[in-house]
Amino acid sequence: MTSSARELHAEGLRDHLAPALRALGLVGWRRTFSLPDDTHWLLLGVVERPAADRVRFTFGLSLVRRADWAAAGLPGHRPDPRAVHGVETWRARIGEVLPVGEDVWWEVLPGPRWRVALDDAVAAVRHYGLPELRRRAERDRTGTAEAYLSPADLDDVNAALLTAAVPRIQRAELVAGVLVLTGAWTRADAAARAVLEGTALGFLSAGDDRFHGVRCADTLGRELWTFTAAEA
């Protein structure tokens, strides 16, 4: 007898998704998980939309200071990342931190390849969701990063990058006198480096006293290229 999408999804959560998330360092069960941290709740929750012939799912990400959660006196040992509690430092759907920058849902469908969606979802958590949670927790802890431009302010720059077939800038932040640009780039992409060098020199030529260099990093926070004011 062929299993239904709901049966496969339940099996996938129990036998594949939850163990894979725990292998990444998360703790929890069923649909809510957290990363161990002394000062913050770094949370991930499975958000589901069942239908007759398939189950769509995505992840909710949430960052809550432990002190804020305790002071709020809300029920439960920890916040539920699928709900809005009003004490979050940051919350988003995982699609917002993926290169596409918009809501992303995976689908479990009956058939021989039903686990592919689960594997893809785990990869998104590993490479994008958890690094973003850790980065935001560290920034909130230390106060070392300052947003430089909002996503809307980056629209014109990203439109130019799109014309050159270069992935967009996901965020621009000031860190210790350096403007850090983050995006889904790789060190091996010479075209991206060339276009981003021009972009960086454009930022540096503006003469903003708050930074003296521009660093480009991938979505895991790894440094790719650095450009200095001397090159502008």
Polypeptide structure, described:
- The protein has helices at 5-23, 66-72, 116-142, 155-163, 190-204, and strands spanning 27-29, 32-35, 40-50, 55-65, 90-93, 106-108, 145-149, 169-175, 178-183, 213-217, 223-228.
- The chain is an alpha+beta fold.
- It folds into two domains: 5-142, no CATH class; 145-231.
- Strand 2 (32-35) and strand 3 form a beta hairpin.
- Helix 1 (5-23) crosses helix 3 (116-142).
- The longest helix is centred in the middle third of the chain and has 27 residues, at 116-142.
- The chain is globular and about 60 Å long.
- 27% of the residues are buried.
- The mean pLDDT is 88.
Number of separate structural domains: 2
Approximately how much helix is present in the residues?
A: 25-40%
Structural class: alpha+beta
Low-confidence stretches: none
Q: Output the helix-strand order.
A: HEEEEHEEHEHEEHEE
Q: Which value, in Å, is the CA radius of gyration?
A: 20 Å
Mean pLDDT: 88
Largest sheet: 6 strands, antiparallel
User: How many DSSP H or I helices?
Assistant: 5
| N- and C-termini, Cα separation | 67 Å
% residues in beta strands: 25-35%
Note the quaternary state here.
single chain
SSE topology sketch:
Blueprint: H1 5-23, E1 27-29, E2 32-35, E3 40-50, E4 55-65, H2 66-72, E5 90-93, E6 106-108, H3 116-142, E7 145-149, H4 155-163, E8 169-175, E9 178-183, H5 190-204, E10 213-217, E11 223-228
Parallel strand pairs: 9-10
Antiparallel strand pairs: 1-2, 2-3, 3-4, 4-5, 4-6, 7-8, 8-9, 10-11
Helix pairs in contact: 1-3
